[in-house]
Design a protein that fits this description.
The structure is a homodimer. By secondary structure, chain A is mainly alpha-helical. The first copy, chain A, contains 25 helices and eight strands. In chain A, α21 links the parallel β5 and β6.
Amino acid sequence: MLKRYLPILTWLPHYNHRLCGADLLAGTIVTVMVIPQSLAYAILAGLPAVVGLYASILPLLAYTLLGTSRTLAVGPVAIIALMTGAALAGVAPPGSPAYLQAALVLSLLSGAMLAIMGLLRMGFFANFLSHPVIGGFLSASGLLIATSQLSHLLGIDAGGYDALTLLASLARHLSELHGPTLTVGIGTLAFLVGVRHLGRATLSRLGLPKGLSGLLTRAGPVFAVIATALISWWLGLAERGVAVVGSVPAGLPPLTLPRFEASLWRELLVPALLISVVGFVESISMAQMLAAKRRERISPNQELIGLGGANLAAAFSAGMPVTGGLSRTVINYESGARTPMAGLFAAIGIGLVTLALTPLLYHLPVATLAATITVAILTLVDIPLIRQTWRYSRSDFSAMAVTMLLTLVEGVEAGIISGVLLSIMLFLYRTSRPHSALVGRIPGTEHFRSVVRHDTETVSHLALLRIDESLYFANARYLEDTLYALVASRPELEHVVLICSAVNLIDASALESLDAINARLKDSRVTLHLAEVKGPVMDQLKKSDFLDALAGRVFLSTYSAWTELRRPTQ
Amino acid sequence: MLKRYLPILTWLPHYNHRLCGADLLAGTIVTVMVIPQSLAYAILAGLPAVVGLYASILPLLAYTLLGTSRTLAVGPVAIIALMTGAALAGVAPPGSPAYLQAALVLSLLSGAMLAIMGLLRMGFFANFLSHPVIGGFLSASGLLIATSQLSHLLGIDAGGYDALTLLASLARHLSELHGPTLTVGIGTLAFLVGVRHLGRATLSRLGLPKGLSGLLTRAGPVFAVIATALISWWLGLAERGVAVVGSVPAGLPPLTLPRFEASLWRELLVPALLISVVGFVESISMAQMLAAKRRERISPNQELIGLGGANLAAAFSAGMPVTGGLSRTVINYESGARTPMAGLFAAIGIGLVTLALTPLLYHLPVATLAATITVAILTLVDIPLIRQTWRYSRSDFSAMAVTMLLTLVEGVEAGIISGVLLSIMLFLYRTSRPHSALVGRIPGTEHFRSVVRHDTETVSHLALLRIDESLYFANARYLEDTLYALVASRPELEHVVLICSAVNLIDASALESLDAINARLKDSRVTLHLAEVKGPVMDQLKKSDFLDALAGRVFLSTYSAWTELRRPTQ
């Protein structure tokens, strides 16, 4: 019981110095690598850069205690930062103390929701975010985030949380273009793109081992941060008007208590829910992928608790909403992390940096961080996925397209909510008009297939109708229409057999329709039979009076119905 | 084309004096019979009694032109009147000119929505009101309406649109109990209950033919109205404080133009939608039942247009929202109506009454109308249906119970919306955790059934898994979990065959999961196969790369998979 809620107890007893060495190395590498992105994502959310560091200390500790994934690395991530910024902009002016407070409340609400969903074992909620909706949302968010970083790269003062507002604001302020900032921004961008596309191959060609050259390539942002900070200090870019990170308070994160303010909590409720669900989906996908690689198992419900704990920790230590991040997890995994202890080491490392090294960040240009975000985030734009989805299913594609469009035009919340609602509506619409097929016997076999697609044997007084859907309220009336039309079009009909091999459920509405069909067919001197009714469905039908009223029989197989009914009764 | 949108053109050319005679008789009977309920339902909606008459003139004419049901009788009905009252109470004080205006706007919006849904062929929308939700809603509304009539029966001044408010208001004003009103109310109630329960049998025993005694029994309210109006006039009950209908303006309905006022329209949008859908469901159910009896066909989409036209007519002739009514349709049908012309005759009849006979209604006690409503409405409370649903399915029952509870406590809108949402959510939840069964061969046949329920033949290196649900985003992850657990629990497994006879859809999310399952099973040296994939599903799979990546094969039948794979490969 205790082990279920504190997964650390399952692995800590077997912990040894070999594992510790691997984790210590991974933790150190992660510390160095995630500092630039932690700062960048805090700025993306409209928060002071140091909040990104704070959110990478205690939350990691909480996840180490509570999480089931061995290699997931928790912290601020781009999507969540964007959603945080959009949510907070609605309740307080950026930079104000109220804005900081609201970030804590958002972390608290999101953490509490995740933990409660985990305790209530409601991990299945996340399943309602379909892959096309997630894919569309991530692609659109990638574009949105990249657009939002343009102002930092160009050194102009523009803002907004949807693409149209952002572009309009950029266009309005384009004359304020700031040369030195632009130089730093575009220079860093070019460097990072170069490293990403050519780095690994070039380093391998220089004879470096594959693992190391991969890691050095990933360290591109670290080099960029160090180099531009030095250049900025050396040339005094801050005095020339280039925006820099500036003075970051040194010291461990202060303990904070999110303020209770009913109206604020109410306003942040929906954003917190969306942040929780999106964060959980991003995190669990990654955790499952890596667990599969190492044949480990993760528990979705305990993951909810782990992420909930991490967000609660963020709320009480001046942080911001966090989740398992794509890039930091990959770094952790590839640096050889073996247990969640690596996360603890990273937390200690970032704690030490926060304690002593923040003055070194003073001269770091904000444009460098913007370039880092832009390069990282554009990988989210997944054109092949969009093309595949279009090819595979227009219905899935339309959910994806609406999600993308609304994310760009109306913002992240509208995008994801409409995507989810639309995919549910499309599914319901589809099941409300079920496919059905008249089937016939494939000669010489006991097998029955559609008369349209296969050469089959049929007789005119007997209709074998396979219904390809569960029968429930949304399609009960459609079933009636289908059967009445069938009977009306074939006056020689004596028997109708409903083949229920694809019927997984008959609800009370459908039962009433079946009752009506049975009575009406009896009036037209046609007998209704059922075949291949599944065990669970049959159990339920036995609870009603339908089987007594049924004019015909319930056959175990279509073949036995065929054998019994193929000869006309007259 | 013209015939499709003007169904009158299909039957008018064949109209003859025999049909005309039958329709004229039915129209006359309906005129007499529906006057009390038309007055009563207007009062139920908080409107002047005469509005009920106005709403029974032009709307009938519109339906005669546009409707496809031969015997449906349109006019104010109890549920719609209750919903109208609840909607209007939110926007204007009862009795005010604004309240009357709002009733017109509500009719207009509801009529426009119905007509548009009809033109867009969106009749299937109504299917999302499941039978248990409708049943629960009608039962709870019956109780609610009966409670709302108590104040008129007791002669006290109480109001509200949910059960708690009503009862609290009644309790507060109980001391104002008015003796004479109570006498009229309870007396009429007793008379009507007596007629309903004993009338037909007694009259038959007196030797009257069955049809006539049925009709006389239904005429109970007409006798009650005439008798109490006479008594009230004779004893001067109005001067003794008994509420009477009072002076009703004589003359045909004035032409009215619903005012355009954006905020009012916005507020009435949701109520109008609910009124449209509920009214349509009540009307279409009745129309389909009667059409089935006479082997006629009705067109749901044209019915939407017909009811839309009726409501638009109400909006422009000082009326209120209308639909096909249960009791008036039964009277029309049993009086021998043959075509919609009967509706036209009833419209003319009610027009004549409105023109000349309204002074006769002056002394009619409101308590009589309340008793009429109460007796009619309590038949909606369907205890056997509630019991049956409980027995058949707890899931359907819970949707019904929530609908009933919220209708009583929070009002009709909250009740119906939560019922619909809950039934959709329960369906989605159910499909998100699909039933699956390991199947084996029934010895000596080509038939495969669940190993748990039947004696079957199986081999240990081959798992035949039947998935009893379409594969889509909500259950994609669940499918992965099921398969990984299966493979983990049976180390000797070499082949897994997914039997897709119940899979009616594989969406993009499920496809991604199948891809992942295929790859992961391959890693564990287990081969994934499919069997019994339906034509439409196979067509779609061919649009993706999945079939190329699939490690195993796609078998036409489970039997052929069994034949090929039953021998272990080692």
